[in-house]
């Protein structure tokens, strides 16, 4: 069996994978099965003289933590990755802050990663590169003579050609992506957008989801990522945390709780969600004091202007809404701007009657799946889900909403709060089945199976 070599920005903790969430568990599981390497950044933003890679061997797995020079880190990570690619790939060309030196640093870091990785590779390895930080890495490994199979998985959305064209380097990036044997996406929409970009921006021969460019054949498919359902269910029903949630709920006075859990990111649609909650209280005054809304949003990428702005906006909005509707014994919105432990999060999801997952655009959105897994099947809550989250493709039984339509959202929130138990059970049963079927293990197994034999892979695009 071939070894698996995984490349990602951060390397999970192989000794304690549960701490870093489902993805680290699944990836370390796959590497442990086959033996292999997990290669990524060492997490150090300070320059020390002659820093070299840190290599550690745990059983049949090696972790290699590679340095990034501090002069490159800012323009690579905060610059090109998160001020250019992140907004653009989430259809927010208006937030792109392109600078040539960002792109130069992005290419430099990818070259350094390719140089650092190549001596460790064998011809029969399966190399699996993760996410938008490393799109050109495969092509750079090829330039250095790598003949192994190399696959790429994009965790975020892939935009349509008109948006992708706003990237000055779009053609170089497209041609680099066609150097992978496998290019994996979260959804049909992403695969379709990618194919359209191949047609518009490259000279590749296109045959369905297979592309021939410069003598190499690549296949694109959807590999929707999931969660570790059993592990999350276990956390959600942990006694100590359930007790905490109950106590927290009792302090709220209100009978019902709605919950939102997101990194504080402009793609998550939190301001419109707050507005819709306010609109719901205006339209349905009978809900006053019966429901409170808990939003947990830990800080994220605060060095970038757009993130500081969204933080200010939410503080203003929650203040205004509480100022308008609160009473001596009722706080409508509780907004918590910090991270909470995964056990606590799971218990809070379980004790909330409605989850609001309303991103303007999202690769997948794991919180939607975590909410479903956390529910008591006898008395499950209702998931309100944006049609622009990747998860919506697999979860049509959620209450699907348009996050740009505040009125529609307000009505859907009210409908969720009033949904009869039979309907809640019916919807939840199917959602849970599908969350199990497309869990993080399936995701990892399907990708590795495709990468092992890309020529024989039957793409799922026409069969789902
Ligand atoms: P993204 O990767 O864009 O942040 P996802 O919804 O796909 O969005 O994944 C977010 C992950 O981070 C989920 O597993 C979620 O439970 C976790 N998470 C989000 N907010 C918090 C928080 N406040 N505390 C702890 N974990 C969080």
From TrEMBL:
EC number from the UniProt entry: 2.4.1.15
GO biological process, one term: trehalose biosynthetic process
CDD domains named in the record: GT20_TPS
SUPFAM superfamilies: UDP-Glycosyltransferase/glycogen phosphorylase
Keywords carried by this UniProt record: Glycosyltransferase, Transferase
Database matches in InterPro entries: Glyco_trans_20, Trehalose_OtsA
Domain of life, per lineage: Bacteria
GO function terms (MF aspect): alpha,alpha-trehalose-phosphate synthase (UDP-forming) activity
UniProt pathway annotation: Glycan biosynthesis; trehalose biosynthesis
Catalytic activity: D-glucose 6-phosphate + UDP-alpha-D-glucose = alpha,alpha-trehalose 6-phosphate + UDP + H(+)
Keyword Cytoplasm tagged: no
Gene3D superfamilies associated with the record: Glycogen Phosphorylase B (3.40.50.2000)
Pfam short name (any one): Glyco_transf_20
UniProt similarity note: Belongs to the glycosyltransferase 20 family.
Protein purpose: Probably involved in the osmoprotection via the biosynthesis of trehalose. Catalyzes the transfer of glucose from UDP-alpha-D-glucose (UDP-Glc) to D-glucose 6-phosphate (Glc-6-P) to form trehalose-6-phosphate. Acts with retention of the anomeric configuration of the UDP-sugar donor.
Assembly notes: Homotetramer.
Protein name according to UniProt: Trehalose-6-phosphate synthase
Organism placement in taxonomy: Bacteria, Pseudomonadati, Pseudomonadota, Alphaproteobacteria, Hyphomicrobiales
């Amino acid at each position: 069996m071939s070894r698996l070599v995984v490349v990602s920005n951060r390397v999970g903790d192989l000794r304690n994978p549960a701490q870093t969430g489902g993805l680290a568990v699944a990836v370390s599981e796959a590497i442990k099965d086959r033996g292999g390497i997990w290669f990524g950044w060492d997490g150090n933003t300070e320059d020390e003289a002659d820093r070299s890679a840190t290599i550690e061997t745990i059983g049949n797995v090696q972790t290699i933590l590679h340095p990034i020079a501090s002069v490159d880190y800012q323009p690579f990570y905060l610059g090109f990755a998160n001020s250019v690619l992140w907004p653009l790939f989430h259809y927010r060309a208006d937030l792109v802050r392109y600078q040539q030196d960002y792109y130069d640093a992005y290419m430099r870091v990818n070259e350094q990663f390719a140089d650092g990785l190549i001596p460790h590779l064998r011809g029969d390895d399966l190399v699996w590169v993760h996410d938008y930080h490393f799109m050109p890495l495969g092509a750079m490994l090829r330039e250095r003579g790598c003949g192994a199979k190399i696959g790429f998985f994009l965790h975020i959305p892939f935009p349509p050609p008109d948006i992708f064209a706003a990237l000055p380097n779009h053609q170089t990036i497209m041609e680099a992506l066609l150097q992978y044997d496998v290019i994996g996406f979260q959804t049909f929409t992403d695969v379709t957008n990618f194919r359209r970009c191949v047609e518009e921006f490259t000279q590749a021969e296109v045959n369905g989801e297979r592309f021939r460019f410069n003598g190499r054949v690549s296949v694109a498919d959807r590999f929707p990522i999931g969660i570790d359902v059993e592990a999350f269910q276990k956390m959600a029903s942990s006694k100590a945390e359930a007790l905490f949630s109950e106590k927290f709920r009792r302090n709220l006075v209100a009978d019902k709780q709605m919950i939102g859990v997101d990194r504080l990111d402009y793609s998550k649609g939190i301001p419109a969600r707050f507005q819709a909650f306010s609109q719901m209280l205006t339209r349905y005054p009978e809900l006053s004091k019966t429901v409170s809304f808990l939003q947990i949003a830990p800080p994220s990428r605060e060095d970038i202007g757009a993130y500081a702005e969204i933080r200010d906006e939410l503080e203003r909005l929650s203040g205004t809404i509480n100022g308008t509707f609160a009473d001596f014994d009722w706080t409508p919105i509780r907004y918590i701007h910090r991270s909470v432990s995964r056990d606590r999060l799971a218990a809070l999801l379980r004790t909330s009657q409605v989850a609001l997952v309303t991103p303007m655009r999202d690769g997948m959105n794991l919180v939607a799946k975590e909410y479903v897994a956390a529910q008591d099947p006898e008395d499950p809550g209702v998931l309100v889900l944006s049609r622009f989250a990747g998860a919506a493709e697999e979860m049509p039984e959620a209450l699907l909403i348009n996050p740009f339509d505040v009125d529609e959202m307000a009505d859907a929130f009210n409908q969720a709060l009033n949904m009869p138990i039979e309907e809640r059970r019916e919807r939840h049963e199917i959602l849970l089945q599908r969350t199990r079927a497309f869990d993080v293990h399936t995701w990892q197994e399907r990708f590795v199976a495709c990468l092992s034999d890309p020529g024989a892979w039957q793409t799922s695009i026409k069969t789902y």
